[in-house]
Amino acid sequence: MKFGSAKRVVALAAAALLSAGVLTACSSGGGDDGGSKTLNVTLANHVWTDVITKKIKEFEEDSGLTVEINQLSEDQLVDNYKVKLNAGSSDVDVMMYRPLQVGKLFGQSGYFADITDRVNDAGDWNWDDFQAGPVGLTTYEDMVVGVPMITENEMLYYRKDLLEKSGLEVPKTMDDLMNAAKTIKEDNDGVAGIVMRSQASAAVTQFSGFLYSFGGTWEDDSGNSAIGSDEAKEAYAFYGKLLHDYGPDQISTDMSWPEAAAIFAQGDAGFWIDASSLYENVYDPEKSKVGDQVGFAPFPEGPAGSKPYNVAAWALGINAASQNQDNAWKFIKWATSPEMTLEIQKEGVPSARTSVWENPEGTSNFPEELAKAIQVNGENGVGNDRPLVIGVAEAREIVGAPIVEAITGGDSDAAADEANQKFQDLLDSEK
Question: SUPFAM superfamilies from the entry (predicted)?
């Protein structure tokens, strides 16, 4: 799920508004008296959307509103927002968006209505039930601008049979992981101890958990680059050593998740670290030779604890230019209610609500060990898996360069210093 070049089109189209963007308060727009009884909702093609659209009639009957759904592919969605939001159009009331990719751009451009008071005053709907990581990602400059409804976090996948063969416990710390990866590679000819993403941009998301768990971050409290810090350098070196020493023989530096997942699914690695949402690629027996031996565990602890990413993959917001904001909030409140969230998660769509993960019904369609690991990661998780900037693609290439240097056995400290300056230049250019 990548915006790719389409995201860059949004950035270019919105550039003229960046310096003047101001979030619109939730009091603006039409209320129940002045708002239209027709609600325009723009959604992306997604399993979540498939489920919610089947239940729209229930909302219409209860609210007396008519919901017009505009359902688009991700690229079409971006193009649609580029045209309408940039023009200040009120044709969109509710908008489904990707916080990691466009959250800062849309916030700075003034596209979001501020819904802080709405979520805090929603009573039993219970804003406090939402996990901290996703909530942080749908907050812009201390204002809530979206409600997270789909999440993913960073998972440790492992081979039960290989751990048993070598007499190993499931790793709980980074040191455990390093030692276990070493042992598995030594004990099994042709089998890597671990496989992970190795391409610069693609690896950034999975590296983020290492960065946080070693005490590092992308930016410091002053908004300056922090990837040249001692903690970041230690994380870069550790990630690189895992793959350089204990990864597949002749490790390539162009692997994203499909390539890494394929190696693990073929039985050629003992561990794999990647997104929880990808589990069926190695667990489903039709896709994996070792599906019956796959285990799931929370992200290992580093010097700063276990801090995997736990992100809002998608969220719902209200267009600042909408003249129907009260009714837009009614829809979001209904679509993300505890009851609806439970129904949707039962269809296999992971949510941001703590109560749903604690409900046995909410985890009934997930492997038990996976559900427990997701719940633990949700409690400890950090709300972003990449730098939260406007130029996301450029930033990922910059901060990902030291990962490749470390994997290939080069001087990752020097690469981190070089990347630190480049990332600082990018941050300065966006201020």
Answer: Periplasmic binding protein-like II (SSF53850)
